Amino acid sequence: MRVAVVGSGVSGLGAIWLLNEHSEHEVHLYEADSRPGGHANTVSFAVPGKQAVEVDRFLRRYTSVEILPTEMTFSVSRDKGAFEWAGKDPSTVFSQRKRLLDPRMWRMVYDVLRFNACATKILTEDYEDFSIGEYLEREGYSDGFRDDYLIPMTAAIWSTPPDVCALDFPAKTLIRFMENHHLLQLTGRPSWLTIRGGSKQYVNTIIDKLPKPQLHLSTPVVSIHSERAPDGSSGFKVVLKTALGATETYDHVILACHSDQALKILSGPTGEEARILGGFRWSQNEVVVHADEDLMPRDKSTWSCWNYLTSSTHDSRGGKKANVNEVALTYWMNDLQHIPLEAHGPVLVTLNAPRDPAHSKFVSRIAYAHPVLDAQAIRLQADMPSIQGQRGISYAGAWMRYGFHEDGFTAGLQAAVALIPEAGKGGLPFEIAVAEREVERWRDRVQVVFEALEALGVRAAVGALLSFFLAVLRLLLGVDTD
C-alpha cells in the first residue's frame, strides 16, 4: 500500500514511525514547513554573557530516546505580584505571609483538599453531563478556589484563555483528566518526563529512518480528493495535490494536522466531515523565548515549572473580575529541563506575554494554535469514528483527545495501525494503552468526612468564626489583604 501522511507534528511522526519501520507500506511525509516536528520545536537559547542551550517550546512528550524525570509545579501571580502563591510546598502556598490572615486563602486550601477527595465521585455515579462551572456552583465551592486555583490550572494546562472554556468544560472530562494525571493528589505523584537534548532528538530519530525521496519538506498540500479504484473494486484512490504543482495518487492519506486545516485540504467534504472538522475551535497563542524575569512571579520562592500570570479587570458593576480573557503562562525551562541557572541564566518560554520582554533578553518568537476543548469539542470527538477511514482518508491529532503530546502520538499510531493487516509485517510492537486510572477506594472514606462537614454546616460555622478572628487580627496588625 502507498500511504501519505500530511503533517509532521507528533501525530504525523507517530504514524510515520509505525508505517515506515513496522509495515511493508511505502509511506510519504508531507510538511509545509522547512523543518519537521510541529509543536515539538527545539531552539537554541543564548543571551549575552551566558552559554547557549537547546530548549523546547513544547513540553509534553512520548519517546524512546533518553529521558529524564521532571516536575509539574504550578504558581499563580496576579496584578504584578499583588497576589501570588505556588503549590510546591506549604511555605509557597503562603509565600505572601499576609495571606495567613486572608480567609479567602484558607477557604481555597480547604476546597482544594475537598475537591481532590470528592471530585472523583462524579466518575463512579450516574451524574448528568454538566459543566465544571455548574458542578462547582452546585457543590458550593468558593470563588477563591475557582478563580485562584482551578481556572488558572485549567487554562494553563490547555493554553486557553479562562473565559473561553474553563467553566464550560465538561465536569466529567476535566475530573477524569486530573485523576489520570495524578492532579487530584498532593503526595505520591509520579514524575513527568523530559528529553535529554530536547524533542529534536526523537524527531530526528524518526525522520532519519525515512528514505529521503519519501520526505517532502516545504511542500504544502493544497487538496486531496478520493476516486473509485480503477480496478472496479470497492476501494478508493486518493489524489493529492501540492502547492508546488505536483499531483500524486495514494491508496490512503492520513491528515495529521489541525481539524480546520484538514477541512481546508479536503476537496468536496461530506456534510458529516464538514460538521465535525469545522466544529472544533482553535485558540491562537504567541510563544516568546526569553530571559526576562519580569514575566515571572515577583517572589522567586514561588517560581514553578508553570507560572500563570494575569491582571484583574473590573466588571460592569465596578467590582474586580478575577479572571480576564487573556492568559499568560511562563514555563521555567531551567526547572523543567534541568538547565543550570548559573551557566545559562533564566531560560523562560512565555505564551501570550502581556508585553514584549526586554530587547536584550529576547531570543525568539513563534505563533501556535491550540484546540479549545469545550463541551462542543468533547461531543465532536465522540463523533470522529464516523468519518475515520472513509474514502481512503483518516485523521490524527492531539485535538482528538486531551490535546497533549502523548494524545497526538497515540492518534497517529491508531490511524496507522488500522492500515496494517494482521498477517502483514510486524505491526505495532506494543499495545496502545489509554491512560485511564481506576478511582482509588480510599477516597470513599475521606469523601464521607467532607460531605458531613458540608451537610452539618460545620465548615460554614468554622469558616465564619475564622473569618471574624482573622479580621480582628488584620485590624490589630494593620494588615491589608485586598
UniProtKB/TrEMBL annotation:
GO terms for molecular function: oxidoreductase activity. The chain crosses the membrane at residues 456-477. Gene3D superfamilies: FAD/NAD(P)-binding domain (3.50.50.60), protoporphyrinogen ix oxidase, domain 3 (1.10.3110.10), Protoporphyrinogen oxidase, mitochondrial, domain 2 (3.90.660.20). Residues 11-267 form the Amine oxidase domain. It comes from the Eukaryota. It holds the Pfam family Amino_oxidase. InterPro entries: Amino_oxidase, FAD/NAD-bd_sf, Zeta_carotene_desat/Oxidored. Keywords: Membrane, Transmembrane, Transmembrane helix. The keyword DNA repair does not apply. PANTHER family: AMINE OXIDASE DOMAIN-CONTAINING PROTEIN, PROTOPORPHYRINOGEN OXIDASE. This is Amine oxidase domain-containing protein. It comes from Dentipellis fragilis.
